[in-house]
Design brief:
Blueprint: H1 2-16, E1 35-38, E2 46-47, E3 52-58, E4 74-77, E5 80-85, E6 90-95, E7 100-104, E8 117-123, E9 126-131, E10 136-140, E11 146-151, E12 159-162, E13 165-169, E14 180-185, E15 191-197, E16 213-216, E17 219-222, E18 229-234, E19 237-245, H2 255-258, H3 261-268, E20 277-281, E21 285-292, E22 295-302, E23 308-312, E24 324-329, E25 332-337, H4 339-346, E26 354-356, H5 362-366, E27 372-378
Parallel strand pairs: 1-19, 2-23, 3-26
Antiparallel strand pairs: 3-27, 4-5, 5-6, 6-7, 8-9, 9-10, 10-11, 12-13, 13-14, 14-15, 16-17, 17-18, 18-19, 20-21, 21-22, 22-23, 24-25, 25-27
């Protein structure tokens, strides 16, 4: 029944959309109505400072146990943040002012350990880790004590937990050859349903960061990076939320490329095409990234006006990609930034636009090699 509803919704959307990119010229009222946003990869980049209303900066205390690299993955629990590094298996805990609390690494070959961290999330103030090598979910206390492990019965490319359900990206290896990209399991790891239908089996899987599923409002969004459509899960159903239109730059418009590994590999080696994108969907704005000619390009989409702006993190010259997007927290997008770039970045903002969290000073940031966290609120004019 849910699949039929999904198909009906797709048809309704197709006939109700006038043309791709049409939203760019008018104001919309319901921001969660399906929209397509045209992205011009050749457009001129706007300095992000011109779009910022205010920022809040927090140091991440540097100790012998908390020497951090770039931060891409952060989860919040009661009064704390945990920063996870999938490649090493390290988990670093900080309080809400950036003071280091503890760390643990339970990587290894034992039944209570993980080999390759693909995803992690918080469940009732405990940290769950999806080990994509053993296809198991391990749950630990915030002190690293093992609680339980569960085996995932299907091969998943990404995994999320929400509303007492597990959501698996099975787009590369559909469940029982069922052509649906997402499998939903209960807490006993039993299949509830498959959803997000597709027509052609893809020859290759790519990721942007570590999470194809991200929180959005009281639900989830799903972004397969070689699919131009982002889906939202609400009322026990995935539906299309938005799509991006890269026009002739998007290689997957040719379905022969989509399903042929050799053709896909050949196209991806070109410098003038787009073959993946990542999105961070907020209630008003969407932050989009993609690679073109070995460079990461960044865009800010205003869902209210439909305006799409390419942005850069410097005032003059080519972008240095100083901002690493992590996730939305309310109306603020959380980024990480290397400590060496903070002073230069903040000088582009007025005094009333920048705030330091308690315990954070610019002097301390400059004396540390740890990155900082930066919450950015964009203008809503």
């Amino acid at each position: 029944m849910k699949r039929n509803l999904f198909s009906l919704l797709i048809l309704t959307l197709v006939f109700s959309c006038a043309e791709k990119g049409g939203v760019n010229d008018k104001q919309v009222t319901n921001l969660d109505d399906f929209r397509t946003y045209a992205i011009d990869v050749e457009s001129k980049a706007t300095p992000v400072f011109d779009l910022i209303e205010e920022v809040e900066v927090m140091r991440l205390e540097e100790t012998e146990e908390s020497l951090l690299g770039d931060v891409y993955k952060l989860d919040a629990l009661e009064g704390e943040y945990v920063i996870t590094y999938p490649r090493t298996g390290d988990n670093h805990f900080f309080d809400r002012n950036g003071k280091f609390l503890r760390a643990f690494n339970n990587s290894g070959g034992g039944p209570k350990e993980y080999n390759l961290v693909l995803n992690s999330w918080i469940e009732n103030d405990d940290l769950s880790i999806f080990d994509s090598q053993s296809m198991r979910v391990h749950k630990y206390t915030k002190f690293g004590n093992w609680i339980e492990s569960k085996r995932i019965p299907y091969s998943a490319f990404s995994l999320a937990y929400y509303d007492s359900k597990y959501f698996l990206d099975v787009s590369r290896n559909p469940v029982e050859d069922d052509f649906h990209a997402v499998a939903v399991l209960n807490t006993k790891m039993e299949l509830i349903e498959t959803t997000v239908p597709f027509n052609d089996r893809k020859a290759i899987s790519l990721s942007w960061g570590v999470d194809n599923f991200k929180p959005y409002k009281d639900g989830l969004v799903y972004n397969d990076v070689i699919n131009d459509t982002v889906y939202v899960y609400e009322n026990d159903l995935f539906r299309p939320l938005l799509s991006v239109d890269f026009r002739d730059k998007w290689i997957w418009s040719d379905r022969a490329v989509y399903s042929d590994f050799q053709k896909a590999q050949s196209m991806m080696q070109r410098n003038d095409v787009v073959y993946s994108f990542g999105s961070f969907v907020g209630e008003r704005y969407v932050y989009v990234q993609h690679i073109l000619n070995s460079r990461i390009l960044n865009y800010l989409i205003d869902r209210e006006t439909g305006e799409v702006q390419k942005i850069k993190s410097v005032r003059n010259g080519a972008d240095k990609n100083l901002l690493i997007p992590i996730r939305w927290e309310g109306d603020r997008l959380l980024f990480s930034m290397r400590s060496t770039a903070v002073k230069e970045f903040l000088t582009e903002l007025e005094e009333g636009q920048k705030e330091f969290r308690e315990g954070t000073t610019l002097e301390e940031i400059e004396s540390s090699e740890n990155p900082v966290l930066m919450w950015v609120k964009f203008k809503e004019e």
